Amino acid sequence: MTEQLIQLVYIVAAALFILSLRWLSAPSTARRGVLAGEAGMLLAIAATLFNHQIVAYHWIFIAFAVGAAIGVPLGLVQMTAVPQRTALSHAFGAFAVTLVGTAEFYLDTPDISRFMMLALTMEVILGGLTFTGSLMAAGKLQEVLPQRPITYKGQNVVNLSLLGVAVAVGAYLIFHPGSSYLFPIIILIPLVFGVLMVIPIGGADMPTVISLLNSYAGLSAAMMGFVLDNKLLIVAGALDGSSGFILSVIMCRAMNRSFTNVLFGAFGQVQPPQARTEERITRSASAEDAASILDSAGSVIIVPGYGMAVAQAQHRVRELYDVLTKRGVNVRFAIHPVAGRMPGHMNVLLAEADIPYDKLLDMEEANPEFPQTDVALVIGANDVTNPAARTDRGSPIYGMPILEVDKARTVMVIKRSLSPGFAGVDNDLYYLDKTLMLFGDAKAFVGSIMRELSHGHGA
Amino acid sequence: MTSDMIASLYVFVLAGFIGFEVIRRVSPLLHTPLMSLTNALDAIAVVGAIVIAGQQRGALGTVLGTLAIVASMSNAVGGFLITDRMLRMFKKREPKKP
């Protein structure tokens, strides 16, 4: 196969990749999108095998087999583990890019043009920090590493000067590509920087961090495309990079925070409890009360948070949805953009529990609905329902877009205790007159509501 | 800069804009599958790794290239697999109870 023919196949693959993402925009065409992506990938790999520079195939096919053997179990993880799997795959992607960049450098030094060396430097710096940063993120999500932010004095200064050294060495290499003894520095420093970058970031910020690392992984792949003069790689990397960037912006907006604040702010640190002079009063209710309120409601919006997924309560919640829907109650779900550990995670968990996706409302759809809703049932969500974000200028979460559950006629909150959420602030919602606190484990409590509903309260 | 590099920059900028426009339309409902799909597509780095591993220009290139193929191939296989598994779960109507 000639070089031109390979390039033509690459163009087809690039078009298929764009179509793939285009089709992903709606659930009805999304699976076709996966097929288009797979077709593009297969075509590109097949065409590459005809590249005349390739003289030996045995290692290539062994690597295909090993990679596929690792990939299959990674494709079969549980839905609750998808965030750490995704972080791990960012790490793998960045690892591959860094390795190829390193090989390219040592094969071609010192005959590398400045432009190529610039791209190569960016490729290995971005690749290296994404590799270790993603491993750290995966460790935090898998809870093998501490979730809370680890900070020390002068942390940002140390991190940024470290990165500064790597950039300076990279810049020197652009003009002196023969100084190969310096190359290990621009690999090792980003590897260390990736670890240091994620250490001060808390569990609540993982959706933003994963999206940002996604963007870096894409950019480093695009840089690799520049180095290898491979337009298909540039296209795929640019698509991935812009996707990660858009998702990070959405996540930051949903938490009312800036990039710099997420990266350097060490959000989610335990703050000293504010001294409250007055004792605040809550109303609590039993499963029986909750069941009769739900039974007489015309419309219910359930607000799930990560606590629901931790308690593995989504299947119980689905049963509750079934029973109430059968009795003519209009049950829907309101999902905040940062519910869950990565963008869209909560939707996947609810879809896995067989809840139809047209019942899942995003924040913009849900908020106008709350004033006409009889009952808002909050399960395992906290900060994203706090009305202080709208009203209390002094609150750390002031300005954060929230689900306006306090506008529903009755609010019920299933929660273990009154402890604060990630932001470390008290939730004003719990002290409203219309709010009933249902203290207990999410799974067990929904279970007892179900029992009460099936006894006696026939519709 | 040669015209090749300029062409590459064009491709990069235009693909970035296409990505921005296409991805903006993806509903928040599908943001997790979106991320796992773009991850799988990113595994196209394998085409670079294949050439490095196959051209036999010394042990370093072969070893690094082979490892890079393993890493990106596992991303491609795992990424497409889990994206499809997730998308299969998104159903519109309540399935009939047995």
Counting DSSP H or I runs of 4 or more residues, the number of helices of chain A is 17
Strand count of chain B: 0
Order of helices and strands of chain A: HHHHHHHHHHEHEHHEHEHEHEEH
Molecular shape of chain A = elongated
* Topology of chain B as a string of helices (H) and strands (E): HHHH
Number of helices of chain B: 4
Q: Low-confidence segments of chain B, ≥5 residues, pLDDT <50?
A: none
In total, how many domains does the architecture of chain B comprise? Answer: 1
The rounded Rg of chain A comes to: 25 Å
Helix content of chain A: 55-70%
Query: Quick check: average pLDDT of chain B?
Result: 90
Shape of chain B: flat
The most extensive interface between chains reads: A-B, 113 and 86 residues
Low-confidence stretches of chain A: 267-273
Description:
The complex is a heterodimer of chains A (459) and B (98). With 459 residues, chain A is an alpha/beta fold. Chain A folds into two domains: 77-264, no CATH class; 283-454, 3-Layer(aba) Sandwich (Rossmann fold). In chain A, 57% of the residues lie in helices and 7% in strands. Chain A contains 17 helices and seven strands. Chain A has helices at residues 3-23, 30-48, 58-75, 82-108, 114-141, 155-175, 183-198, 206-228, 231-254, 259-264, 287-296, 306-310, 314-326, 345-352, 363-366, 388-391, 442-454, and strands at residues 283-284, 299-304, 330-335, 360-362, 375-379, 410-415, 435-439. A seven-stranded parallel beta sheet of chain A has the order 1-7-6-5-2-3-4. In chain A, helix 4 packs parallel to helix 8 (206-228) and helix 5 (114-141) packs antiparallel against helix 6 (155-175). Chain A starts with a helix and ends in a 5-residue tail after the last helix. Chain B has 98 residues and is mainly alpha-helical. Chain B has one domain. In chain B, 76% of the residues lie in helices and 0% in strands. Chain B has helices at residues 3-24, 31-42, 46-54, 59-89. In chain B, helix 3 (46-54) runs antiparallel to helix 4 (59-89). The longest helix of chain B has 31 residues, at 59-89. Chain B starts with a helix and ends in a 9-residue tail after the last helix. The mean pLDDT of chain B is 90. Chains A and B meet through helix 1, helix 2, helix 3, helix 4 and helix 8 of A and helix 1, helix 2, helix 3 and helix 4 of B.
